[in-house]
Amino acid sequence: MKVTFLGTGTSTGIPFIGSEHPVCLSKDSKDTRLRSSIKIDINNNTFVIDCGPDFRQQMLNSNCKKIDAILFTHEHADHTAGLDDIRPFCFRNGNIPIYAHKRVLKNLSTRFSYIFNEIDKYPGAPSVTVNPVIENESFTINKIIFLPVTYLHAKLQVFGYRINNFAYITDLKTINNIELDKLKGLEVLVLNAIRIKEHFSHLNLKEALDLISIIKPKKTYLTHISHLLGFHDEVSKSLPKNVFLSYDGLTIEFK
């Protein structure tokens, strides 16, 4: 399995528009972050989790030529606003399967009605095949099994996904013990950590590290990072030896 971090920033990205914060002015490329998303390559399949406003640039940056499915964590714009940019993939390969909670699919069908409306559809519009994700029900795409993990982002339900010994968890604030059990025995965990100070809907760094100590994955990569977490290199030096800050373009491979 190969995982590529397409974006590792929070909803505003870094640099934050108009900000004079030192991280936003950093010349280190690892301090520049597009909105959070990953690409998973496994058994000749390519899956993307979340399709935010930077999707087009992320596909160009990663030289992605095909997508077998897109999985959505939730409906917020920083995770969904790039849906129109799947058009080149549709032109080459037809409908793109999308997977999300039925609430999220309904939200997308309202915001992107021209994609979901099959009556008098504009020929250049993207085409999708809709697949609802149901809590506590694993599903299979091209023989790859996905296990949804549900948790809360403030009061909003969000799905993370486990594939084999890898899990992607973003926009988490609280999670119950039943869902935590789904994350045991991981080789690699990706987890959100937005900043140092506590946040109402995201884990801060301390909360993320505390949760990692409960889950006990072999390695963890932190994502959905804001400029308020600090400089990439400085924060990296403060982390436990098996915890790393992700950065845009980082690729990790494991069995």
Task: Please outline the helices and strands.
Blueprint: E1 2-7, E2 37-42, E3 45-49, H1 55-61, E4 69-71, H2 77-80, H3 87-93, E5 96-100, H4 102-111, H5 113-116, E6 128-132, E7 139-141, E8 144-153, E9 156-163, E10 166-169, H6 177-181, E11 188-192, H7 205-215, E12 219-223, H8 232-238, E13 243-245, E14 251-253
Parallel strand pairs: 3-4, 4-5, 5-6, 10-11, 11-12, 12-13
Antiparallel strand pairs: 1-2, 1-14, 2-3, 7-8, 8-9, 9-10
Q: Could you explain the architecture of this structure?
A:
The structure is a single chain. The chain has 255 residues and is α/β, with parallel strands linked by helices. The chain has a single domain, classed as Metallo-beta-lactamase, Chain A. It is 22% helix and 28% strand. The chain contains 8 helices and 14 strands. A 7-stranded mixed beta sheet has the order 6-5-4-3-2-1-14. It has a 7-stranded mixed beta sheet with strand order 7-8-9-10-11-12-13. The protein is globular and about 55 Å long.
Provide the descriptors you would attach to this structure in a database record.
255 residues, alpha/beta, Metallo-beta-lactamase, Chain A, seven-stranded mixed β-sheet, 8 helices, 14 strands, 22% helix, globular
